[in-house]
Amino acid sequence: MNRVHEAMPLRRLAELDLAWCLRFNRASQRRGLERLFAVVSRLGDGVFWYTLMLALLFVLGETALPVVARMLVAGTLALALYKWLKSRTTRLRPCARHDHIRASVAPLDEYSFPSGHTLHAVSFSIVAVCAYPALAWLVVPFTVLVALSRVVLGLHYPSDVLAGALLGSGLATLVLQF
Length: 178
What we know:
Elements: H1 3-26, H2 31-60, H3 65-89, H4 94-97, H5 116-131, H6 136-152, H7 158-176
């Protein structure tokens, strides 16, 4: 098979990624949705997760220490991994590459792959829910909203979010082994 034929599936995936990005980004044209996702994204910067960790410590005391420690380790590993990957892949954000995609909030950095918000949200959620299944009603919907917010706000392609979710799942699985 020659290189042209090998590149065709990748090109099609990139086109599909962009098409879904455009569809999701159109939702940001609705003021209410834009505000909702901007708030969710801001909370996903860490505010929600660190508040949850503090609440667990406050409500459960010392018994929450191992879970909070795992969440902190997952967060530290996630930060290192996504910064390393972004510096290697240097994929520009959709709002920087396409005139039809509007960023509703300022990005935290220049590159989009992978979604660090999603990576953190998924890893924190898995660790928290494994220890406290009753938290699923709160953290799972919030995690889904964080992931959606990144595409709706024009900051990530769906593939960035998918990669962040897969990496976050892997990190959480690793952290839960200890």
